[in-house]
Design brief:
Length: 214
């Protein structure tokens, strides 16, 4: 199964993608997670990406496309993969399509998790991310067993640098301008499905499984 997760920042792409990846036994590929891992490890790519991410802007296409195109050609992607946070611009979508066409493959589902802007700001302020393993929680909607401590690895939780309200506002503007056009792109490709992302996490997951027929 080859799946793209679409949706505004904070719509729940990461939350749902992790669960889908588990059920469908396919790798979860999050460009945001890849950049954050690079920042943590002090790589050159991480340093470049950070200057854009901290401002709420997109990392330039040329730093993203090759990375993903290489990743989806690795062995573990043979039975499919789930892309979270990529593509985010029309040129990225075109690059993905070209890479897959070259090997006679194509994406099968583009799942748009639809959440209005009003709901997003609150969600982001309550999100907490683990510095160790990247697991995501929410102080109200998905709390950890012990406050401030990751359930998975026991490391500490932080508010992501780009989750400050003013940066979230900028990310939403960037989303509407550069990423939302992908909804039409994938509608034309005939693979777009929309789910109501304002529902509970479990209900959103249930709706997605129905769409995927699993
Ligand atoms: P990225 O990490 O992809 O961030 P994003 O798209 O802004 O999305 P988020 O990860 O913030 O949200 P999400 O939809 O995954 O929501 P989550 O599941 O965590 O990218 C970060 C930056 O990297 C970008 O700004 C850009 O600079 C750069 N970048 C990455 N990819 C790029 C690309 N392809 N091109 C260029 N630049 C790129 O959920 C959010 C919160 O809500 C959580 O706390 C969660 O617990 C909670 N929640 C989830 N679902 C529900 C629900 N149903 N009800 C209540 N709460 C919920
Ligand atoms: Mg995410
Ligand atoms: Zn952790």
């Amino acid at each position: 199964m080859k799946i793209i997760m679409l949706g505004a920042p904070g719509a729940g792409k990461g939350t749902q993608a992790k669960k889908i990846a588990e059920v469908c036994k396919i790798p979860h590929i999050s460009t945001g997670d890849i950049f954050r891992a690079n920042i943590k490890n002090g790589t050159e790519l991480g340093a470049k990406a950070k200057t854009y991410m901290d401002k709420g802007l997109l990392v330039p296409d040329e730093l993203v496309c090759d990375l993903v195109v290489d990743r989806i050609q690795q062995d573990d992607c043979k039975n499919g993969f789930i892309l979270d946070g990529f593509p985010r611009t029309i040129p990225q979508a075109e690059a993905l399509k070209a890479a897959l066409t070259a090997i006679e493959e194509k994406m099968e589902y583009a799942i748009d998790i639809d959440v209005p802007d009003e709901n997003i700001i609150n969600r982001m302020a309550g999100r907490r991310a683990c510095v160790g393993c990247g697991a995501t929680y929410h102080v109200e909607f998905n709390p950890t067993k012990v406050e401030g401590v990751c359930d998975v690895c026991g490391d500490k939780l932080i508010l992501r640098d780009d989750d400050k309200p003013e940066t979230v506002k900028r990310r939403l503007d960037v989303y509407h301008e550069q990423t939302q056009p992908l909804i039409d792109f994938y509608k034309k490709e005939g693979i777009l499905v929309t789910v109501d992302g304002t529902q509970s996490m479990d209900k959103v997951f249930e709706d997605i499984l129905k769409v995927l027929g699993v």
